[in-house]
Specification:
- By secondary structure, the protein is α+β, with helices and mostly antiparallel strands.
- The protein folds into three domains: 17-239 and 424-476, 2-Layer Sandwich (BirA Bifunctional Protein, domain 2); 255-404, Alpha-Beta Complex (YbaK protein); 493-599, Anticodon-binding domain (Rossmann fold).
- Helices cover 29% and strands 28% of the residues.
- Helix 1 crosses helix 12, helix 2 packs across helix 12 and helix 13 runs parallel beside helix 15 (576-599).
- The two termini are 39 Å apart.
- The chain binds one RNA strand through strand 14, helix 9 and helix 14.
RNA sequence: CGGAACGUAGCUCAGCCUGGUAGAGCGCUUGCCUUGGGCGCAAGAGGUCGCAGGUCCGAAUCCUGUCGUUCCGACCA
């Protein structure tokens, strides 16, 4: 490709709304154009990057046995009602809908379990066809509350979504592990350092779920991990060991104490320390957080209790409530109570809620890891400006408690698998694998005929990779002060040739053209920068765009030399005749490294 | 959903408080100069100031509404 024909448009200044490197650089280098909030046009360069990502992902899913298909983006409401997900997606308002001329309502695919399950139920009729995996890489829609960070969180994006069908859980386990390997191979070929973490699988079915994370400070997920034991989990599901609270000098019976205008636990403890309870600490307090959990049929008021120094994990709480509700669930939405709702539930100003008498909620859940029912605590008294000191859950509770896992694990907590301590980092979720079980097949009546001559619902797995998000994650992981440093496997072009020198310098132009033609003939994706620009402009542009390898034909040409330079690497001078071969070899070596890394995946 | 800010040239922004009919830098076009890190010289094109009302002799500027964008927040008691 000749640069004069590429419609290359680079910006010298950062776009005003870009907060993270990938958004900033992709916009400045002309890969990305914002069409609306959370809506982006992929420019010619990004199109090539996405195409390469797509190809590598497809190759790996194919290798794992996947069959590529294309499913409709517009999906009938009736189909989604068969799985029961129409209501949940309407409640959470994450699905965009459209109407056709007759008024029929369609959802725009956020995922495609319903469509593919319906398909499988029609075309997969015998156990002899199992296992089978269908997948696509297609546009998805999510009505995000807040799209942001450029390509990272958008309303419309490209996702690889795969769905596997099985007759046994053992078969699902095999495919699930095969997909894990395929993902890891794909990410290594794509040049991403991704790692698998245990993920929340929701309270409904699902015997396992892992997310694939790219470590990045701008990531929206928090991961707890221990490099020694290999434990890694999303904070939404992470387990840990937490040191128990030590003893303190508590009154024998729960004692009502006037704690004027101190609602927050640290303030309450500080107040008590100077008013007769010198050794009580936040770990001895009982934190009560009030929520409203919405299900399809009702709003349930919920009180959640954790130790005073810890936080409630809303994902864990949602799952706990769903387990508690059973058939009355699932929880579609969980939100903190408004101050007015808190007053109604406790009869007190916010800040003084507790599990004693006077608390009026439908459900009360206590954290089993951090709370000891027999230990004395400090709890809100459900009376403005008052706490109960020496309160015991086993003796003084005014509500019926359910014990479950609610606490948010944090750095410094013990590794649940061993003796080490957990650390914390941020990650970008680029993939997710999930054992679905029979949730969709049972709901939708998707069955096959087994060897036993009986009908059985499919056992399913589903798997996703954020194809377009991978491009953004790659930039987050590979950039420097000058611009993007694309991994060779996904770079829009692999080599750029920059002729410099006086216009009409025939020797320079011939050298550049010769190298260009030679690389083209070798199938290398190469750019010849034939623009009438000063060298500085050209160098800046290609560093920004992130082409991995650069050949400069300039003042050395008189001595028969050109310069070669990998992006971010050292300059070397080579005879003109050797430049193309050197570039081709360098490219092939980098690709071979990626493939070797992929082959090393266990 | 709640709150705040912003919307002026392709981009980044100034002008608005104190109304008088629009500016800078970059980019773009043309010509000259020539070419090793975006910064040589000159000339030029380009905006009914998001949209709709209102006030006024006069509105980018003041008022109201509306649309859009961005950021923050949604209560851990």
């Amino acid at each position: 490709m000749r640069a004069s024909r590429m419609n290359l448009t680079t910006l010298r200044e950062d776009p005003a709304e870009a907060e993270i490197a990938s958004h900033r650089l992709l916009t400045r280098a002309g890969f990305l154009y914002k069409s609306g909030a959370g809506l982006y046009l992929y420019g010619p360069l990004l199109q090539r990057v996405v195409e390469r990502i797509r190809r590598i992902v497809s190759e790996e899913i194919n290798r794992a046995g996947g069959l590529e298909i294309t499913m409709p983006i517009m999906q009938e409401q009736a189909l989604w009602e068969r799985s029961g997900r129409w209501a949940t997606y309407q409640a959470s308002r994450t699905m965009l809908t459209v109407k056709d001329r007759s008024g029929q309502v369609f959802g725009l695919a956020p995922t495609a379990e319903e469509v593919v399950t319906d398909y499988a139920s029609k075309v997969v009729t015998s156990y002899k066809q199992l296992p089978v995996t269908f997948y696509q890489q297609h546009t998805k829609f999510r009505d995000e509350i807040r799209p942001r960070f450029g390509l990272m969180r958008v309303k419309e994006f490209i996702m690889m979504d795969a769905y596997s069908f099985h007759d046994t859980t053992a078969s699902l386990d095999v495919t699930y592990d095969g997909m894990r390997v395929a993902y890891q191979r794909a990410f290594r070929r794509l040049g991403l350092e991704a790692f698998a973490v245990e993920a929340d699988s929701g309270a409904i079915g699902g015997s396992g779920s892992h997310e694939f994370m790219v470590a990045a400070a701008v990531g929206e997920d928090t991961i707890l991990y221990n490099a020694d034991s290999g434990y890694a989990a999303n904070v939404e599901r992470a387990h840990g060991r937490i040191a128990p609270a030590g003893p303190w000098t508590a009154p024998v019976a729960a004692t009502l104490v006037h704690t004027p205008a101190v609602g927050a636990i640290t303030d309450v403890i500080g107040f008590l320390n100077t008013n007769g309870y010198a050794d009580v600490q936040a770990v001895h307090a009982l934190k009560c957080v009030l929520f409203v959990a919405k299900t399809a049929t009702a709003d349930h008021t919920v009180a959640a209790f954790v130790r005073g120094d810890r936080d409630v994990n809303e994902v864990k709480l949602t799952n706990a409530i769903t387990r508690l509700l059973g058939d009355a669930g699932p929880v579609l939405n969980l939100r903190p109570m408004t101050p007015d709702e808190v007053r109604a539930a406790t009869g007190a100003e916010p800040g003084f809620a507790g599990p004693g008498t006077g608390l009026k909620v439908h459900l009360a859940v206590a954290d089993k890891l951090t709370l000891d029912p027999a230990a004395p605590t400090v709890a809100g008294a459900n009376k403005t400006d008052h706490h109960l000191v020496g309160f015991r859950l086993d003796r003084d509770a005014g509500v019926t408690l359910t014990w479950d896992d609610l606490v948010t694990i944090r750095a410094g907590d013990g590794d649940p698998k061993g003796t080490g301590v957990l650390d914390e980092k941020r990650g970008i979720e680029v993939g997710h694998i999930f054992k679905l079980g029979t949730k969709y097949s049972v709901a939708m009546g998707a069955e096959y005929l087994g060897q036993d001559q009986k009908r059985h619902p499919f056992i399913m797995g589903c798997y996703g990779i954020g194809t377009s998000r991978v491009a953004a994650a790659a930039v987050e992981q590979h950039h420097d002060a000058d611009g993007i440093r694309w991994p060779v496997t996904i770079a829009p072009y692999q080599v750029v040739i920059v002729p410099t020198g006086k216009p009409g310098d025939a020797a320079v132009e011939q050298a550049a053209e010769g190298i260009y033609q030679e690389l083209l003939s070798q199938g290398i994706d190469v750019i010849l920068d034939d623009r009438d620009q000063k060298p500085g402009v050209k160098f800046k542009d290609w560093d920004l765009v992130g082409i991995p390898y650069r050949i400069v034909a300039g003042r050395g040409v008189a001595e028969g030399l050109v310069e070669v330079k990998p992006r971010g690497g050292e300059v070397a001078n080579l005879p003109i005749a050797q430049a193309a071969a050197a570039a081709a070899i360098w490219i092939k070596e980098r690709i071979a490294e990626r493939n070797a890394a992929a082959d090393a995946v266990r």
